[in-house]
Design goal:
The protein is of the alpha/beta class. The protein folds into two domains: 232 residues, Rossmann fold; 159 residues, 3-Layer(aba) Sandwich (Rossmann fold), CATH 3.40.50.2000. It is 46% helix and 16% strand. The protein is built from 15 helices and 13 strands. The strands form two sheets. A seven-stranded parallel beta sheet has the order 3-2-1-4-5-6-7, sandwiched between helices. Helix 8 links the parallel strand 6 and strand 7. The two termini are 13 Å apart.
Amino acid sequence: MKILLIAHLMPYPPRGGSTLRNFNLIKECAKNHEIHLLTFYQKTHLDNPADFQSNIEEMKKYCKVVKVFEIPTDGRKLAWYALLFFNLFSLTPYSAWKFHSRTMERSVRKYAAEHSFDLVEIGTIALANFAKLVPDLPRLMVHHNIESELLLRRSRNLKGILAKMYVALQGHKLRRFERKACSYFDHHTTVSERDKQTLQKMYPGTMVTVVPNGVDTNYFKPIDTQIDEDSLIFIGGMSWLPNLDAMIYLIRDIWHLIQAREPNTSMNLIGRMPSKEILKFSRSNPSFKTLGFVDDVRPYMAKTAVYVVPIRVGGGTRLKILDAMAMGKAIVSTTIGCEGIDVTDGKDIIIADKPADFAEKTVELLRNRKLREQLGRNARRTAEDVYSWEKIAPKLEQVYEELAGMRK
């Protein structure tokens, strides 16, 4: 099949979240289909022009065509603030405004006219309007989260009244935008059964297939190394609010409870752009280390005793948990942190939602090596049996087949 894929972020390098998912699904589906990729990129990821060009060449190993476009407001702080302000007077959510690009629009029309595509895949709800440019093609919408639900959850956890109101407004705008999008997409995919049910409950009659997140079980696998028995780790960029909120929650409400019971506990936080509050906390607490971005997280994960995921907001499924499961790590997570993943509390993960409970369960694992190892073995087995990309890609390909059949 010939597929036009429109993405909001360059899939390579696959540094986490949607890029990791998109890269691996493209890699697998390219074995059987011809993919033409039109994608935006973030200026913050353009550290080196030569590296960026090599990233494009890497994607060309799997895609027949790769065209990249700058996010119109990216890197322009004044334009970003202006966009936030003027969006107050629009019914369209900020996220859709952010990706409005005449250059991308022209390219979508051009490629649709020049090629006989079997379908168009839109990589996130913020890009939904681009589907209107190809009305004759079957249209697939990919939901990495139920984005309106994510925003409304975020608004409830914010402290500032203005921020709370603004994010809640965006959540309601996005919910309306999602409803309209559901009317002109032929099919949708979500990453979890819960997200599927949520989408269909909000928008009855929507055709939805679950295509779960996955993990490269050959890349992420147990490593035989010395374990630091008192160590914790969290991996995730702090520019993503659920990750930032998780670390703020940890340092404000949980860390002191852990250290009160296990004073020698250390923590490695890996991820770009830690906030000022996190950096200040790290400087005053030497056992809490902020390492920033690292090229390979596996050595850090391998020697860590417990992987903590104190996420309170979000949707979809957390790829960070799947990576940790594939490496056979013991994990303590909130319910929201492991939402949508086929895990069982006490079998292949530990779930705790209140600060005291989260700290208690974490300390229990730090003290109980046998329990950690048992949880890790079970987690690895679940990752292999359910979440390898090789087993997930056929589910997406089945959706492709159904959509392509609409043209016959």
